[in-house]
Here is the input.
Amino acid sequence: MARIGYARVSTDDQTLDLQRDALREAGCIDIYEEHAFGARATRPELAAALRACRTGDSLVVWKLDRLGRSMKHLVEIVEDLQQRGIGFQVLTGVQVDTTTSHGMSALQLFAALAEYERALIRERVMVGLVAARARGRKGGRRPKLSPEQQHLAADMARGGIPITTIATTLQCSRHTIYKAIAPMGALSVEVQSLELS
Here is the structure.
């Protein structure tokens, strides 16, 4: 039953000494250390620490904010550990130890907070879309082709130029061309049957 430590600092001028000492004092022999900004998606040392954990082991961090990029990410990691039979312990600040009933209650609270955070984000996005529509802007991605390119594609299709050639010329996918010219009536039944076959 190993205790595996994970330590992280956000910048190169910060030191890992405090975390390293606390993790060693907590019985961690293997400590994975990382210099990575909190929101960064790729953390090779965290991935290695999670792979090193086996059933019955515990992952230990100095503070809760050293682990997850967000509340949602944190809950996902801890739930994955729990499903694999691995404990999780936080040494300072909001102390969590999922090997105890109190720690499991804390985890459930974090899961509820993560869901609340997701709901708030969804609500803000929806309010933003409504406000943008009220100002005449549509939500969603910008079209891959400008209106001029769409008209050019339609003219080329009407002139009998194959969709593949149009897509190559405008440096986009065939799907983008189909989507752009279909509303303009430029895609004849003959062209459709030729290109889709």
Notes: The first strand starts at residue 3 and ends at 9. The chain has two domains: 3-114, 147-196. Residues 147-196 form one domain. The chain has a mean pLDDT of 82.
